[in-house]
Amino acid sequence: MTTSLTFLTDQTSxxxxxxxxxxxxxxxxxxxxxxxxxxxxxxxEMRDRLExxxxxxxxxxxxxxxxxxxxxxxLDRGLMLDISAIWRAEGxxxxxxxxxxxxxxxxxxxxxxxxxxYWWAVYYRPSVFAALGINSPVRTWSDLxxxxxxxxxxxxxxxxxxxxxxxxxxxWFDYLDMRLNGPAFHVDLMAMRVPYTDARVRxxxxxxxxxxxxxxxxxxxxxxxxxxxxxxxxxxxxxxxLVGAYVTDEFVPAGxxxxxxxxxxxxxxxxxxxxxxxxxxYFAAGGGRAPDLARAFLAHLGSREVQELTTRHxxxxxxxxxxxxxxxxxxxxxxxxxxRGADHLGQFYDLDTPWELADAGMSAMVSFMDHxxxxxxxxxxxxxxxxxxxxxxx
Length: 394
Fold this sequence. Notes:
Layout lengths: L4 E5 L4 H17 L5 E5 L2 H13 L6 E5 L4 H6 L7 H6 L2 H4 L2 H7 L8 E5 L2 E5 L1 H6 L9 H13 L3 E3 L7 H15 L1 H8 L8 H15 L12 H9 L3 E7 L2 H4 L9 E3 L11 E3 L2 E6 L6 H11 L2 H10 L3 E2 L10 H12 L3 E3 L2 H4 L2 H16 L4 H19 L1
Parallel strand pairs: 1-2, 1-3, 6-7, 9-12
Antiparallel strand pairs: 3-10, 4-10, 4-11, 5-7, 5-8
Helix pairs in contact: 1-15, 9-10, 9-11, 9-18, 18-19
């Protein structure tokens, strides 16, 4: 009988790996009879290898992951373990906020344990803004345009958009779509209820193309990633970058306090405000060797003690409602206010729409980074994929 567990995480930055080690140490004190072997894999590699990892004869028992539509195909093939029992036994129904209960089980079956969520925002150096006389925080689109002009006049690119691994381009699409067309339209697009030939989708790309024409973006976005985009802001080559809150955990040197953020500015004040707020958590492999032990370790990961530890060490908000978020510091407090001020919370482009469609959509966005030309031709394969997926569901 197996009496040990393997735990695979993509939390590879120093602060994140330190947290993972602390979490495992806490477990070891509670359950010294069940050692956990912790291993790491780069986020991009884990995403690309996920299915092969889970179909391996000896998959990792527990893994980090995020909520979203990509789980569907994994569930259909039995690659994720049913953890409904711990959802009930550990009182998660009462301790978790409604958003997380709804996405991960409630009183039905549950396969994913959400533990934290975070915000996306525009990050910048306050010292650079102050030196150029740019008022901060930037709130409206006209404020952002004025900031971009000041930055360009100083020889600084307004934004670094590192789309080498596609996510940064998808974030820009999400925000421009929500700010131009509203979150309700964006939800319909993600749910495949709206075609990619819709004039409102074209409007997003036309607006985006104007920003390229106005030289808002540093260099060739597809030639660098979001870590390099953050580095460009830190060294003053770019004024801003749109990125997730993990930027301060992964890409900003410890002790560097000259970093701040603001909400992606409103373009149309008549529209509700939508935000990307991805949800992180854990799951157990359906083919794991020790399902009961894996469930016990997941119960540990979902505990108040571990989520408070996470809030102390990472720039993220807990999924539980009984965790004191004040332990997270200024960034966490302001991130919570940003989220509270939103009218709609989504996750992210490739989490809110079927993975096969997201893959086609992000490929189109990455192509757009290089050539802002025939948008209709660019979106045609995306619409073809949407039609195929809809037909398969009918």
